[in-house]
UniProtKB/TrEMBL annotation:
UniProt entry tagged with the keyword Chloroplast: no
InterPro entries hit by this protein: SGT, TPR-like_helical_dom_sf
GO BP, sorted A to Z: post-translational protein targeting to endoplasmic reticulum membrane
Protein name, as recorded: TPR-like protein
One GO MF term: molecular adaptor activity
Annotated source species: Rickenella mellea
Listed GO CC annotations: membrane; TRC complex
SUPFAM superfamilies: TPR-like (SSF48452)
Superkingdom of the source species: Eukaryota
Keywords from the named record: Repeat, TPR repeat
Length: 513
């Protein structure tokens, strides 16, 4: 019984000294555990991180549930600059409340139902207190997550005006749209929403049967991950306990397939990054999660480069990595913005420019001929546009930084703004012509992004506005054609956003401005 108590407490708080006190099937590992503990403590004090890391690894082989061991090995990994392993070990140190609740209940089942002696009464009281405390922590964690991202109100959820509803209503039209009008964003939203709904449906089927067995469907987490990477606009929380169901599904899948060493980390790190970015708005944490995911993906691609994709996993394909890089770039930019002037130290603009250049270079490659419309937008054109947008932001930030250091003379910023306006209009012109820039590999039969769609429309509105602002400050000559195009695109995007999705989208041309 003592071993059960120690095991449960280790799951609940992460502060147990050793879970090795439990008897193994072959022999007693108690003495081995204490001997390893003594040796590791001495090695850690001597800063012998290599030997200590090996000892902690041996201890984990004896008991892979002890939080202290993972914590100490994470410290050794960090000292040895093994950042990926250190991150993984640090995550294993956090409390596993779901597993703790199960263990507390199992411990209660071991206590006799009646005729308890004083020692058994004390154990039962401790178990009940532990279970109640753990349930309270689970409830508090779920409430905190829900407070960060409240569920969509039911009247809005069923109003038919969500992006997914509008995309579905537009599909009959966009299927017949001429090639010269470009690819509608309805393709990507509709495709992502189907994945998201499938994953959410599979997640709801997690339950226990009459015999206590857990019944669930695999790959629900993978479907949800693919959906938010395809287009994050489809993400919504429809139920108050959505996050609780997600955590239960993730824990169950991890347990069933040994996901910490298999499929789990690649997908889990991406979703942790998305939740940090979208739910808690902790952009620095999102950057860290995405960095770990990219590092793991690149390592896997290198190790299994000669293995077919159907065996190594779809997550190691170029499209998946490109989508993660695009999400990472967006989180990095927001981390720069929220650092309130201190981003030059932690998130330098030069690094933002490097990430944008890498993403643009990768996403500018032509997709395979049989690539569907949604994949073209999600994995090629939107990442390319995102990279250019970040480059534009980087140019602006550099100009503002230089102006602040020379703000005693207004003409200094005027000169900078004039140069910047030329750069911004050059960026805009290249993006505004999809036949010449976003998909030059299609030649005359190009299927560019329709400039009055919501997603790309935002880029077409933003860049001319930046050009206009910089030109006014720099007192440079305005280009009327660009100003007219900005007015046209802005009007089209606003009307599209305000018009219920009944299948048709307002269209405008330069002649109407």
């Amino acid at each position: 019984m003592e071993g059960v108590v120690k095991h449960v407490k280790s799951l609940n708080s992460g502060n147990a000294k050793w879970c090795c006190l439990r008897h193994a099937e072959k022999g007693d590992v108690t003495q081995v555990g204490f001997r390893l503990s003594f040796n590791m403590d001495n090695l850690l004090k001597k800063l012998d991180y290599i030997q200590a890391y090996e000892k902690y690894t041996s201890a984990i082989e004896l008991d892979g549930t002890n939080a202290i061991i993972f914590n100490n090995r994470a410290a050794c990994g960090k000292a040895l600059n093994r950042m990926l392993e250190a991150t993984s070990d640090a995550q294993m140190e956090t409390a596993n409340y779901i597993g703790a609740m199960t263990s507390w209940k199992q411990a209660l089942e071991c206590v006799p139902k009646s005729n308890l002696n004083p020692a058994e009464q004390k154990l039962k009281r401790q178990f009940n207190q532990g279970l109640k405390s753990t349930e309270g922590r689970v409830k508090a964690a779920n409430m905190a997550a829900q407070a960060m991202h409240k569920p969509v109100p039911q009247e809005v959820f069923y109003s038919g005006d969500l992006p997914s509803d509008r995309a579905k209503a537009m599909m009959p039209e966009v299927c017949d749209r001429p090639a010269e009008d470009g690819i509608s964003s309805a393709w990507i939203i509709h495709s992502a929403d189907k994945l998201f709904l499938e994953g959410a449906k599979d997640m709801k089927e997690l339950h226990k049967d009459a015999s206590g067995r857990t019944i669930f469907k695999l790959d629900a987490i993978e479907k949800l991950s693919d959906a938010v990477l395809t287009d994050k606009r489809i993400f919504r929380i429809a139920e108050p306990n959505w996050m609780e169901k997600y955590n239960n599904q993730l824990t169950t899948e991890n347990t069933s397939r040994g996901a910490w060493l298999g499929h789990g980390p690649k997908i889990a790190l991406v979703m942790y990054g998305f939740f940090a970015y979208r739910l808690t708005h902790d952009y620095a944490a999102a950057v860290t999660w995405y960095n770990s995911a990219i590092e793991l993906l690149e390592r896997g691609r290198n190790v299994w480069k000669d293995i077919p994709n159907d065996q190594s996993g779809m997550v190691f394909m170029d499209n998946f990595l490109r989508a993660v890089r695009s999400a990472h770039l967006e989180a990095y930019f927001d981390a720069c913005v929220t650092e309130l002037g201190k981003f030059s130290k932690n998130y330098p603009l030069d690094r933002l420019a490097e990430l944008a250049d890498e993403l643009y270079h990768d996403s500018s490659n032509p997709p395979p001929p049989d690539t569907d419309h949604a994949s073209i937008l999600s994995f090629y054109r939107y990442p390319a546009a995102n990279a250019l947008a970040m480059k534009s932001a980087e140019l602006y930030a550099h100009a503002a930084t230089e102006w602040m250091s020379q703000n005693d003379e207004l003409h200094c910023f005027s000169d900078l703004a004039t140069k910047l306006s030329q750069r911004c209009i050059m960026q805009y012109v290249v993006c505004a012509s999809p036949t010449e820039f976003l998909c030059p590999y299609y030649g005359q039969n190009s299927q560019g992004i329709s400039w009055n769609e919501t997603n790309m429309g935002n880029f077409h509105v933003t860049w001319p506005r930046k050009y206009l602002y910089a030109s006014l400050i720099g007192r440079s000559r305005l280009r009327l054609q660009v100003r007219l195009r900005q007015a046209t695109v802005t009007e089209a995007v606003l009307l599209y956003l305000l018009t219920p999705g009944h299948g048709r989208m307002p269209r405008f041309s330069m002649s109407k401005s």
